[in-house]
Amino acid sequence: MKVTNLSSARLAWLSVLAGGLLAGAALLWDSWRGPGLPAGSVALVGEHTISREEWLRALQSVQGDSGRALDAAARARILQRLVDEELLFQHALASGLVRDEPGLRKTVIAALVDGATAGGTTDEAATRALFDRQPQRYAPQPRLRVAALLLPAGAQAPDAALLRSALEQGQATAPLLPVTLPDTALPVSRLAQYLGGGAVAALQSAQPGQLLGPLPAGDAQLYLLLRERQQDSPHYEDVAEAVRSDLARQQADAALARLLEQLRRDIPVKIAPDAQP
């Protein structure tokens, strides 16, 4: 046990010592970095500097992965890698690759937007206020109890009174065909499995007792009667996380709008007259 404790202590001291050596090496490099380099930098590539902090982070990362101290040659290779990356990046910019490659262009813009809109905070009062303004936005899916009948292609539809009577009684008389549904209120997601998305979309805004149809159902036509709508009221505690996400998105949108407004002031934009509304 004593040997183990001693080994652990030695490893801890070695880690501290290695970190100090890296920092010292970076300071020494900075002290003899040569003429023409800005303070705090270890290299100048074109007009872009590679900072001592960036180099030090790279050294610490490599040393952490390798588990051993880096000698002068290894430190120089890591700096050269940073220089090579900067050379390639500048070449990519100069070649127009970032502008002309759609996927890369979108990635760069997305990263810029993320950086410009990150860092916002959503306090509890603002989150609660957003929920209080639009509570139904966070309500769970309604549950609907529906009766349905199918009219085959080419058949003549009965008048509305007969359709309603058949739907209310759940009895299909020729030429109508029954559509088997559970006699209970179902979530709209499950109801879509029986009736299809188009029928559920029509039911979303319907009121109890409303007759809907004809709605397309392949070659046939579908008639629906909304018998009951059950809608639970949302509770803030149950949806707080969703409200926070909405508020964060709204804040990010506002930050992006401010950035674009500033860029439009700083960068001239001209649009052809025939391309304007």
Structure notes:
The protein folds into three domains: 2-90, no CATH class; 96-136 and 235-269, no CATH class; 141-230, Chitinase A, domain 3 (Roll). A hairpin with a 2-residue loop joins β1 and β2. Residues 1-33 have low confidence and may be disordered. Strands 3, 4, 5, 6 and 7 form a five-stranded antiparallel beta sheet that branches. A two-stranded antiparallel ribbon has the order 1-2. The chain has ten helices and seven strands. The radius of gyration is 34 Å and the shape is elongated. With 277 residues, the protein is α+β, with helices and mostly antiparallel strands. α1 runs antiparallel to α2 and α6 packs across α10. The longest helix has 31 residues, at 236-266.
Radius of gyration: 34 Å
Q: What does the main sheet amount to?
A: 5 strands, antiparallel
Supply the helix-strand structural class.
alpha+beta
CATH topology heading of the largest domain: Chitinase A, domain 3
Helical stretch tally:
10
Low-confidence sequence ranges: 1-33
Number of strands: 7
| SSE ordering | HEEHHHHHEHEEHHEEH
Relevant terms:
five-stranded antiparallel sheet, 3 domains, Chitinase A, domain 3, two-stranded antiparallel sheet, elongated, 56% helix, 277 residues, single chain, disordered N terminus
